[in-house]
Write a structure and sequence with these properties.
Length: 402
């Protein structure tokens, strides 16, 4: 048996805020989520899979465009012509109550309702499959739905759980919270997860998998994006990641210790761009570290958005390498040497501790729940602490060079 596991297509992503004037490039970005799914369908047909699982968030918004609905319908019809079935759950972005009045998909597409339900499928090799899942009725699902998933049936060869959700954190668990142990206790053969855009394998026997989204939508979703092709043989499961993206967001880091001029910077950026693959377009954020030998005037010019905008796209066949941001980092040990490092460490640990944030910051945000959630996120507070340190560095560097 062979199937594809994908999730988080996010069709209709608006891609706001991009400073790109070239219409050809801009259209490539705006169509990227559509073309990524078309690539998945192409591979599904070529591989002659039995079915495709889409684990939530087909659309980016609870208001879906006619263009996106027609596109999905066309792709599903392509699959129907090849006798490929599609199993769909809706997630927190495109919850089922937002689907009223939308197009009805062809009869090879099975959409899970708001309550946990099973669909049954007999693969070409005779494998009897049970697929279990549910669609979000509304934007948030706070309850643990895994409890409602049935135990595997004795007359079924292979059981797949489909779930759009996130691991429990203990607070503000709005996305069908679960634990890995709860999934393992069900005794399923494969868990097809969605919601997290970073590719992750939570467990290997059985596989519990986030495929990530098939197309990155910003520099926060950098690296190759795609889906999993899953093959089974007598309960043995093998998974292979295959790329589907048409645009790859990349972070390039340059060691700037030898750079002393704008020409040096341009040369190093060109060398790094030439090392990127040419199978997809790359949208690149460049960080120049250890740039202590660059004059302040050059640093200021580089960090001006017009510098990145002035770097011409490098075209090869139908793809591009485009630099959309360039930033400079001064070495901490050099610039920050006059400050008492140990004092900073002690102060930062106290100021950015969860206890202090809970006491001093959260009461100020009582009317802004989304900001409270952000402040409670350890990754956010760590980033805030680092950026504060960088800001002090920057101010010290400017004063030293005046």
């Amino acid at each position: 048996m062979k199937f594809i596991h994908t999730a988080d297509l996010h069709l209709d992503t608006p891609f706001r805020g991009l400073q790109i004037e070239n219409k050809e490039i801009l259209n490539k970005i705006k169509n990227s989520t559509f073309n990524a799914f078309k690539n998945i369908v192409d591979i599904a047909i070529k591989q002659e899979v039995d079915f495709i699982i889409i684990a939530g968030d087909l659309y980016d918004s609870d208001v879906q465009s006619v263009t996106a609905q027609l596109f999905l319908n066309d792709q599903f019809l392509r699959l129907k012509e090849k006798n490929i079935t599609v199993y769909v759950i809706f997630g927190n972005h495109d919850f089922s109550n937002s689907q009223i009045g939308n197009f009805e998909f062809p009869d090879n597409v099975f959409i899970f309702p708001a309550e946990v339900k099973s669909f049954y499928h007999t693969a070409k090799d005779g494998t009897r499959v049970e697929l279990v899942g549910f669609s979000y009725p509304d934007r948030w699902v706070n309850e643990n739905k895994v409890e409602q998933y049935p135990k595997p049936h004795s007359d079924i060869d292979y059981t797949i759980g489909i779930l759009h959700g996130a691991l429990k954190t203990g607070h503000d668990d709005n996305y069908a919270p679960f634990s890995k142990d709860e999934l393992l206790e069900k005794g399923y053969d494969y868990w097809a997860l969605g919601h997290i855009h970073e590719r992750q394998i939570l467990n290997e026997d059985p596989y519990i998998v986030y495929p990530g989204n098939p197309q990155g939508r910003s520099i926060k979703e950098d690296g190759s994006k795609g889906f999993y092709l899953v093959e089974t043989n007598n309960k043995e499961t093998e998974i292979n990641f295959l790329p589907s993206d048409v645009i790859e967001w990349d972070k390039v880091i340059i060691d700037g210790r030898s750079l002393v001029s704008m020409s040096d910077v341009q040369r190093e950026i060109d060398l790094n761009l030439n090392e990127l693959s040419k199978t997809v377009s790359h949208f690149v954020s460049v960080m120049i570290k250890n740039a202590n030998n660059l004059p302040l005037t050059v640093v200021k010019s580089i960090e001006d958005d017009s510098f990145a905008g002035g770097i011409a796209p490098k075209k090869f066949e139908d793809n591009y390498n485009i630099v959309f941001k360039v930033s400079v980092q001064i070495t901490k040990s050099d610039v920050f040497s006059e400050l008492d490092q140990s004092f900073w460490n002690r102060s930062a640990d106290k100021i950015f501790s969860s206890e202090n944030l809970e006491k001093e910051v959260l009461p100020l945000l009582k009317n802004y729940r989304f900001l409270q959630e952000l402040v409670r996120n350890p990754e956010f507070t760590s980033t805030l602490q680092n950026e504060t340190f960088e800001l002090i560095n920057e101010r010290k560097s400017e004063n030293d060079q005046l």
